[in-house]
């Protein structure tokens, strides 16, 4: 019986890939609602949370164009939810370079479209997620106790640095770690404790280098203890992490040493991976049946039902 909730699922709004010729865009051009529903059924997914792996600001020039693009895409996602009752939810996109526009879209997406949360990138233009630029947006999201799903993208400094590989191969996991570090060490995690963050791909490389986070917290010449007053592990254990492209022992062994199964969410990165292969991969990671049920759906049900 379908019961899983996929928190990492990418549809393709019409026109959103215009002019794009990279590997990632080519994979998403084959997306269709019919195939999505069939793959969900085959992988036992009852509901998928729709999000876009790029910000609206990437595809538009100017403030008004960015606002218009974000609104258009969010209404498209909300239309999918209406057309398929119970099968989809939405993490709404924002015109992230425009703070006023973001605040307007947060209100519209959460109050009018009834989105389940907000979708943010790990960085935009080398400005990572904990940067004070985001704080006015975080203030509102904190007030609402909102769910914020994050998706990585290669920063300007490192995009295309290896011609043999796409940015997603290395930079996405690395940039997820940068965003988590910035969120903690800028003081944003402590300042906005009611935001419930989901990080993609099992937290990127962060679980592997967590000792370095702790060492920096204790010994940095900058007073990082004041930025993370309750400690690094306290903040990391509050975050949620999805299984997208990480449903294997190498990633899960590290992540489960850091956080309990209650902080792990089923995510596929569809259409780049399928629910069936993700579920099969998790079964080989040593989780108990109760833990698998928690990851498959119970954690997401609890997280999303607490929406304000």
Structural features, described:
The chain is an alpha/beta fold and 308 residues long. It has a domain of 121 residues: Metal-dependent hydrolases (TIM Barrel, Alpha-Beta Barrel). Helices cover 46% and strands 12% of the residues. It has 13 helices and eight strands. Strands 1-2-3-4-5-6-7-8 form an eight-stranded parallel β-sheet. The protein is globular and about 55 Å long.
Lateral arrangement of strands in the main beta sheet:
1-2-3-4-5-6-7-8
Give the DSSP E fraction (strand runs of 2 or more residues).
Answer: 5-15%
Question: Could you tell me how far the N terminus lies from the C terminus, measured between alpha carbons in angstroms?
Answer: 30 Å
What is the residue-mean pLDDT, rounded to a whole number?
A: 91
The coarse silhouette is: globular
Summing up helix and strand content along with how strands pair, one would put the structural category as alpha/beta
Largest sheet: 8 strands, parallel
Low-pLDDT runs of 5+ residues are none
**What's the total number of strands?**
8
How many helices? 13
What is the string of helix and strand elements?
EHHEHEHEHEHHEHHHEHEHH
Radius of gyration, in Å, reads 18 Å
What percent of residues adopt helix (DSSP H or I)? 40-55%
């Amino acid at each position: 019986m379908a019961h899983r909730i996929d928190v990492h699922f990418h549809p393709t709004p019409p026109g959103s890939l215009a002019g794009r010729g990279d590997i990632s865009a080519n994979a998403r051009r084959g997306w269709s609602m019919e195939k999505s529903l069939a793959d969900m059924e085959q992988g036992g997914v009852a509901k998928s949370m729709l999000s876009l792996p790029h910000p609206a600001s990437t595809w538009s020039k100017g403030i008004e164009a960015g606002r218009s693009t974000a609104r258009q895409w969010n209404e498209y996602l909300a239309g999918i939810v209406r057309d398929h009752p119970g099968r989809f939810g939405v993490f709404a996109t924002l015109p992230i370079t425009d703070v006023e526009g973001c605040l307007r879209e947060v209100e519209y997406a959460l109050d009018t479209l009834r989105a389940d949360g907000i979708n943010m990138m790990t960085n935009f233009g080398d400005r990572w997620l904990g940067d004070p630029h985001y704080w006015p947006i975080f203030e509102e999201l904190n007030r609402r106790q909102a769910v914020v799903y994050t998706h990585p993208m290669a920063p300007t400094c490192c995009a295309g640095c290896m011609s043999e590989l796409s940015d997603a191969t290395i930079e996405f996991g690395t940039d997820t770690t940068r965003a988590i570090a910035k969120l903690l060490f800028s003081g944003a995690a402590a300042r906005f404790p009611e935001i419930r963050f989901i990080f993609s791909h099992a937290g990127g490389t962060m679980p592997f280098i967590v000792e370095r986070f702790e060492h920096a917290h204790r010994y940095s010449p900058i007073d990082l203890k004041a930025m993370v007053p309750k400690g690094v592990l306290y903040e990391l254990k509050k975050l949620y992490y999805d299984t997208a492209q990480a449903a294997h022992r190498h990633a899960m062994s590290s992540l489960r040493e850091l956080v309990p199964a209650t902080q792990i969410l089923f995510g596929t990165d569809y259409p780049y991976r399928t629910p069936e292969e993700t579920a099969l991969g998790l079964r080989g990671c040593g989780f108990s049946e109760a833990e698998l049920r928690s990851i498959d759906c119970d954690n997401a049900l609890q997280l999303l039902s607490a929406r304000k």
